[in-house]
Amino acid sequence: MIGGRGSEFERRHERVLALFPRLKERLAQTAGSMSGGEQQMLAVGRALMADPQLLLLDEPSLGLAPRVTAEILETLGRLNREGLSVVLVEQKAPLALKLAHRAYVMANGRITAAVDPRKIKSHDELAQYYLG
Predict the structure, then answer these.
(1) Left, alpha or beta for 101 (phi > 0: left; psi -120 to 50: alpha)?
(2) Does pLDDT of 20 surpass 90?
(3) Strands 103-107 and 110-115
């Protein structure tokens, strides 16, 4: 590419492959033939290629094995610690709370509680916000 654009693309591409090494093993594979977890990694990777300041994710753990979910969420946490803002909508609240700086409980399209994720110590405490 002309004007250094190719080098920026390559830098981002290498970054995505470093974040998701499994994708490097699948470079010749079509997205439709990848596992659900690999497809989710690919979706996040595609978004990261745009070098966003904010990443919006809706249920990234949906239908994924716990190990793959943990891997993806760990990567999202790493990206956040490196300065990328992440908005995560997730029904598996305990997973999301491990990453969150702020958390909100929604019911019927409305925020019903603002939660400090550091103060939630058990599933029972979390349930109180849902039942609240």
Answers:
(1) alpha
(2) yes
(3) antiparallel
For 102, the token pair is 């702020």
SS3 5: helix
| β-sheet bridge partners, residue 86 | 55
Residue 55 and residue 80 in contact, taking contact as beta carbons nearer than 8 Å: no
What are the angstrom distances between the C-alpha of 51 and each of 27, 84, 85? 20, 9, 12
Q: What is the pLDDT of residues 103-116, one digit of tens each?
A: 888 888 888 888 88
- Between CA 73 and CA 99 the distance in angstroms is 8
**Model confidence at 10: pLDDT above 80:** yes
3-state helix, strand, coil in the chain (%, to 5): 55, 15, 30
Compute φ and ψ for 88, nearest 5 degrees: -120, 120
The DSSP result for 43-104, as a single string, is HHHHHHTT--SEEEEE-TTTT--HHHHHHHHHHHHHHHHTT-EEEEE-S-HHHHHHH-SSEE
**pTM higher than the cut 0.85:** no
